[in-house]
Amino acid sequence: MIGSDEDWVLFDTNILVYAHDGKSPFYKKAKRLQELVNDGKLKAAITPQNLLEFYSTITNRAKYKNSVTPKEATLEIKRFLISPFELIVPIGNELLTVMYLIDGKNILGRRIFDVYLVATMLSNGIKTIYTANEQDFASFSEIKVVNPF
């Protein structure tokens, strides 16, 4: 657990993908954010879920123009694992937190995975997420949502 340090942020998967995709209009900004982490100027975390989503996206030839081979994607993930990004993991209470977070909200389909990401953040003391998909997290007052673009 990282604690309640307000300086920590979690990178949503889209930030990782944009930093990987040199043709993305968000590439330069996303790459700069990644460099800030690598230079120790920004304290950022990722989760196994982020890395699996990253793999799924960058290897999906049907949906991602600049797809890579599984071997290349695996190499990218290994780079994240040895980088200054903090890999946070679920600690065991996330399903209860998910039930709390979805209570009274109309969470459907794949959105449940965003809720699980929020639960993992909260259980690790992280209250801020960087994402280009603000709407995916807007209903959670427990966290701060920042679109760095």
From TrEMBL:
It holds the Pfam family PIN. Gene3D superfamilies: 5'-nuclease. Residues 9-139 form the PIN domain. Transmembrane segments: none annotated. It comes from the Bacteria. This is PIN domain-containing protein. It comes from Candidatus Curtissbacteria bacterium RIFCSPLOWO2_01_FULL_42_50.
